[in-house]
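If your schedule permits, I should be very grateful for your opinion on a structural question. I would ask you to consider whether the tokens describe a fold that such a sequence might reasonably adopt. Thank you for your consideration; the sequence and its tokens are set out here.
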Amino acid sequence: MATPDSGVSPLPREARPYQGRRAGVITRTVAAGIDGVVVCIVLSAGYLGFAGLKFLFDPRGFTFPDAGFVFSIVAGFAVLVVYLTVAWWLSGRSYGCLVMGLRVVNHRGEPLHLAGAFVRALFCAALPIGLLWVAVSRENRSVQDTVLRTSVIYDWQPRGHGNGNGNGTSLPG
């Protein structure tokens, strides 16, 4: 592994100026879309697993279960909150964040604690449109970031270094 003094960095030259800066609305929206696909896959797998169990117990009378609209919304909300909470708490990034080179950090640039990750996940699931505030915010912050004092930063490092933003520097502004 290269040290900071060796002049060799695992980051592409083009990405270096953005490392540790707050991410914009397009990158964050793409990451959220990827996370939405992950949640849909988890829900579909759960549904198919339940249908498979139902088939095993009564193959002759089998019909696909009717999940119902309200149950589907509640299950989707719950899966999203658990998924985001665990991802942000353990690594600071969901799969969408990993793909897009993003990390969620607190106001000091450090990883979120479990409670902070849970509250942010609840807020993001309940008010997803809050993400659009990034487009008008001078600090590239969503409504959730502004209220909870969190940031979504560019971080291509496999693990957080220094203060959690991947490059050992403080967050901008």
About this structure: Helices lie at 25-57, 69-90, 95-100, 114-126, 143-148. The mean pLDDT is 86. Residues 98 and 137 are 23 Å apart (CA to CA).
